[in-house]
Amino acid sequence: MSTAYYLLPGARLPKDVAPAVIPRIDRSLLDPILEGLGTPVCQRLAEGLTLPFARCTHHLWFWGVVPRGKTTPAHAAYVWLEDHGPTLATEIWSVTPCVEENGVYRSLGSDPLTAEEIDRCSEPLRKTLAKFGFVLQQWDTLWYATRMKDWEAVLRPWECQDGMGLDEGAIAGDRDMALECLRACAETMAGTEITAGRKAAGLPAPNAVWIAGGGRQIRFYPPTLIRAVMSDEPVLRSWAMEAGMLCQFVSRTTGKTWPEEAAPGDMIAVISDLWEPWLRGDWDAWLAALPGVASKIAELKAAAIERKTESTAIVACGLGTTATLLPKTEGLKSRFLSRFAKKTPPDYSWLTDSD
Prior knowledge:
The protein is of the alpha/beta class. It folds into two domains: 3-70 and 221-351; 82-215, no CATH class. It has twelve helices and 14 strands. It has helices at 18-21, 27-34, 57-65, 76-82, 115-130, 158-161, 175-190, 193-200, 234-242, 275-280, 283-306, 332-338; strands at residues 3-8, 41-44, 91-101, 104-106, 135-139, 142-147, 153-155, 171-173, 208-215, 228-230, 250-251, 267-270, 311-317, 321-325. α2 (27-34) runs parallel beside α11 and α5 (115-130) crosses α7.
């Protein structure tokens, strides 16, 4: 049976927030797309070495389902490929210049480093990273770092670290080694002329870097059985193509529909509209984004029915957890009795995150 999966990052609300937010949801938006779905099945995906991915649980789910990766999710190596970087045999990490203040890491916002500033900071940072076995790679205005021997640490992806500190979920594996490297790089960045000049000019001055996304480029085998993927995140599209999907069956979610040429089978749409407000804890923005999510699911659901996809499943993601709503399975007797049963509204308990 073919299924269209709708993966919703940031859909599950923290327990202390849910009681105030869920009553404000317009049920007329969600009830139609929940029709026919059964009791949610909850799982915890982020633990141990995967704990740094708790704020992007949909990456853990996608990594396990599409490429069927056996390691922790490798971000940087596949964003590198999406940016048309060459295939490398090394481990690849992303290196993000940022501001660290009172233990909290923040992006440079609307004033990122220019290509010239990146170039002038590269040499001192290259020397520091070399002491820890890294080779700095400059790619236009981006930094990557490669290494032959795997680094025994896992760090939270930058998009989830922005605005966060060094809590328990920030680093797994050899935490002391990772912190030593981050401190050395921070000292280097804080001492550059670029940082001093930007500080004097009132611009965000990078006094730290965040190293994350480490892994190797793997040719996944056997090829994935998923027939189409839609996502606005480059890393997910890259994983799908490296798992054997043709590029015409991997597209953005925005303004797209399922490709007509895709072979019959399971499809995945990653609808990330709730994720950014969820990361920020902006629940008014979360509620404002919900109608768009419901509209996208409704449109894609109708398109899936047209192409004879047989069922719908929703995978809602929280902090390291998922709640999966699959189609109800009913026998002949239950189907007959349901014709006379009083219809009850869908249960919204799955929107509250689980332990």
